[in-house]
Amino acid sequence: QALASTLRPAIERGEFRLDYQPLVGMSDGRLRGVEALVRWDHPRFGLLPPNRFVALAEEDGSIVPLGRWVLATACRQAREWQLAHPDDQPLFVSVNVAVRQVWDSDLVADVAEILAETQLDPALLQLELTESAVMGSAGRPLQALQALSDMGVNIAIDDFGTGYSNLAYLSRLPVSVLKLDGSFVRGFQYEGTGAPPNPADEVVVEAMIDLAHRLGLTVTAECVETSAQATRLRRIGCDTGQGWLYSRPVPPDRISELMAGAS
Ligand code: G
Ligand code: G
Ligand code: MN
Ligand code: NA
């Protein structure tokens, strides 16, 4: 509660920052994009991860101004990377969007304004929404998704597989990417990590990837931690990977170094 009451002034004081986690092409291991992850550099409590304050911000509505700051910062950063590396394939930036941002704020107008201001190509912006944000979305949320998609922004479903969505329904929404929840990858058969193997997960994931592709969606696997998992994911056609195998979330300077070919 003490945290919640100080969220809004903290935005004004510039206490939030973004780290970025690489999103890697499974076929060649190359950096394709990054997911922006917000942190609160709290003057008393130190660096707070999003699970300490995002839910509070959703409850009291401060997720709307915070989310706007995250979008603007991530888009500005993506444009800076593009300008600094004009000969490279530009990185896309993926930004988490809370349900409340779709409902309570003028998300579409905010995104349009931020893209115009930063001069970022809309195709380089991906918005991550959870299944619950889009399922049964009629009226305002669906209009928002459609308008964003018409703008050229990509919509991804975060933590896919943990909720109720079915792929047939999702394929009728303006969604282009599924981010498979980490719990599927964790259950893969592999050796040497002590994790309990669950062979059924691999069958389920293979079928989901196949169906997603047939419906015109691309698939990103979250929580890829071992090369054995990456090998299997590649074999069953997963497009993009994210996880500690490739990199933890890192500050923007580190992404610049990766782009420059440092390691
Ligand atoms: O980094 P960490 O594992 O603590 O992230 C926890 C959760 O916080 C994730 O589910 C992630 O989607 C969410 N999150 C991270 N950054 C943002 C953000 O900028 N906006 C919203 N709404 N959620 C975020
Ligand atoms: O819900 P969302 O997918 O946006 O959350 C992303 C969170 O998952 C980030 O906070 C990130 O730190 C965490 N994460 C990313 N890669 C891995 C991984 O390989 N293993 C685990 N356990 N967590 C990860
Ligand atoms: Mn996410
Ligand atoms: Na996720």
Automatic annotation (TrEMBL):
Residues 1-263 form the EAL domain. Transmembrane segments: none annotated. This is EAL domain-containing protein. The chain holds residues 347 to 609 of 615 of the full protein.
